[in-house]
Amino acid sequence: MILDKIKDLLTTKLISRRSFLKSSAASGIALLGLTGCASEEEEIKTVEVITEEPVLKEEAPAQTVAPREKGTISRQTCPRNCYDTCSILSEVKDGRITHITGDPTNPITAGGLCAKMNHYLSWVYHADRVLYPMKRVGAKGEGKFEQITWDEALETIATKTKESVDKYGPETVLKYYFSGTLGFVHNYGMPHAFFNKVGASELATTVCSETGGATVPYTHGKNLGVDPEEIPNTKLYVSWGASEATTNVHGVKFIKQCKENGGKVVVINPIRTGVATFADMFIQIKPGTDGALALGVINYIIENNLQDQDYIDAYTIGYDELKTAVKEYTLEKVSEITGVPIEQIETFAKMYGEIKPSILRTGDGLQRNSNGSSMVRAITLLPPLVGTLGAGANSGYYYGTGGYWAPDAGPLTGKELLENPNRRTINMNELGKALTGGLETTKELPISTLMVFNSNPMAITQHGKLVREGLAREDLFTVVAEIFRTDTADYADILLPATTFFECEDVHQDYFGLYVRHNSPAIEPLGECKSNGDIFNAIAKKMGYTEPIFDMTNTEAVKACLQSETLVSQGITYDRLKENGWAKIAIDVPFGDKKFLTPSGKVEFYSEKLKEVGFHPVAEYVPTAESKDGSPELFEKYPLTLMTPHTKNLINSQMYNIAQIKDLMGEPVVYIHTDDASKRGIVDGDKVNVLNDRGSIVLIAKLTSTITKKGTVLSFSCPWPKLVEGGKSINEITSDRLSDMAGGSTYHTNLVQVTK
Ligand SMILES: Nc1nc2c(c(=O)[nH]1)N[C@H]1C(S)=C(S)[C@@H](COP(=O)(O)OP(=O)(O)OC[C@H]3O[C@@H](n4cnc5c(=O)[nH]c(N)nc54)[C@H](O)[C@@H]3O)O[C@H]1N2
Ligand SMILES: Nc1nc2c(c(=O)[nH]1)N[C@H]1C(S)=C(S)[C@@H](COP(=O)(O)OP(=O)(O)OC[C@H]3O[C@@H](n4cnc5c(=O)[nH]c(N)nc54)[C@H](O)[C@@H]3O)O[C@H]1N2
Ligand code: SF4
Ligand SMILES: [Mo]
Fold first, then answer.
1. Does domain 632-755 have CATH number 2.40.40.20?
2. Its pTM surpasses 0.70
3. Of the residues 646, 649, 740, which should be mutated to test ligand 1's pocket, given the most ligand atoms within 8 Å of the CB?
4. Where along the chain do the CATH 2.20.25.90 domains lie?
């Protein structure tokens, strides 16, 4: 039934999209309103089967591009923390945005946004936008505020910050930010000059992909991914711990093209993802055991002489040690650890040894485990073993394209203003502990002023109970710059109104593809909103800081970011970028020169450096810290592994307050295998408690026999706590343990019990 409806819908949509493309070619640019969406096709097809998340209903009937008066068109970039970084065209009439659509000329965006961001106009013009500075008048967390002037807000912030600095020292001031926008100006750039001048504690921004990012260089020397637009041209695409149809919707078309061109697709994931539904092979692995699988595959390849010996002899070191290290990972043993049938391991190993070129992609989800680095290390040994690393543009390894980021936010951050380069660093994954004296350093020197921008820690940060207790501290002065009254904003002493990207200028670069993108403001700031850069400049001035950097405008900041060597040498100028909205960075074949920036200059199957930092110099299987093998006692009490990946309907916590999306998602669910459910007397739709020693939350049970295997439960991140029953959401019970490298997050390393 629902499928038929979707098909109907899709046909109408595709037809209207085609006519749009035709008409847009004829008339320059025509805009689609809210319904234009190329990538929905992938999402719609995959949703029903895979994640069983409901499909977004159409808001308006499919458009029939009627002739109408045109408004002013400008170009934006979707600044969300999303691989795709879509280029947007918006139309403004009488100072109001009337239509938005994806740029049809950009190869990745290809004319459509995603299902969630088709609701952008409901987001920009939401009745609950924070439009004026406010001060708290109720209890912390209660969400009672009163409008004040900017002058009063700035005066209060400056006075309180000075008090913190004078009484307790500058390091008692802490910034907390991550990815509300990923603009070089308003996230990585301008705000930091203020904190450097203050000498505030540094924040280790390791919540997302640091563990993997820190690991890859031990093997390859540098993390240089292939251009994902080459995926259609490869013969084997391996999706290892990624969920493209959810988190990278515009990437799915390249994977489909790979198949259409005769290539094979393999998915390795504990969860049946969107891509798994059309993959040639789906390896539904036990979470946290991928290291064992990779080592078993290596062992099989070597035993069957499928390795590329010429490549190994010329460009690698440590092959003998590798051979020895993987010997114990027999098919039987690996099958036992991973829950993957022996025949499947064999077939995959044979495919990976024989089919070339191939691209092996690791997602971010995989490395958000206590053994994330150990797993990623083992996987990175595979491409050089079969000689695909550096063999061609369509060959090798992919863990994002961050290694090529060209704009440089450095000149905006005022590093030269920092007096104490050894100031303390707080790991953002430990915010709860940091605020409640749970870290040695904050026990001695508590945080007294917290300034949050571009983040919603009450929803996204682990071990929510501690974060809440910390934010509720009466002796903590909290400033939050926000677009909405999030749970975090409710704890602010001063709440500042931030602009959306439709209201300010910035520059971006994808972490999926190789595009630098400009963001022009489409409209004037609503109410008294200011961009993050302008907010922190205003605070700096009120503090009495007179350095010229605090006079920098958004446009000057964008221009400064574009002065990098790569951009200048490739002729990517401000004017060109602004005119076209985006430009592609040219790269050489990653590792085409077979130069690897490791100590030996070769791929290191054996790494002395890895040994120095306490790891197996080759690789080994390490169970996760919360698992049957890693913590048998805890497992007795909490026998289910909880995974908490991203959902197609949100960007982390963003969009959960948009009525259409909230209604569509309903109350948050936990997917549980039918066997695990029946053992507990749970039926589909039951309200259940999901709990561990960190806390307990209420979710709706959704029974499945395909999405997850027995023993694994799944609940998506990150609903707003105050908008769900019980006032607590998923991160109430996730672990704030740090990963095995670079202090990364471990959102998937959780043992829980589920009770009716
Ligand atoms: N719609 C949507 N898109 C997003 C986001 C969002 O919230 N919503 N968030 C954005 C952000 S911040 C990021 S970092 C990216 C992340 O993008 P991805 O890396 O694709 O996504 P994740 O959802 O973090 O996790 C990917 C997969 O890792 C799997 N995984 C977890 N543990 C293991 C394991 O032990 N072994 C294996 N093999 N797989 C495992 C999960 O099942 C999940 O399918 O997506 C971005 N895009
Ligand atoms: N359980 C679980 N939790 C997770 C994850 C997971 O996989 N599982 N993933 C983690 C990952 S990978 C990430 S990256 C983090 C993301 O963590 P965050 O970056 O904190 O996530 P967002 O929900 O995007 O919150 C950003 C906030 O910034 C606000 N905002 C947006 N634009 C602007 C702006 O221009 N200015 C200002 N001042 N504010 C703005 C938004 O309204 C929103 O409230 O979440 C992490 N949390
Ligand atoms: S969230 Fe991602 S897919 Fe959706 S519009 Fe933004 S960049 Fe594109
Ligand atoms: Mo992330």
1. yes
2. yes
3. 646
4. 2-119
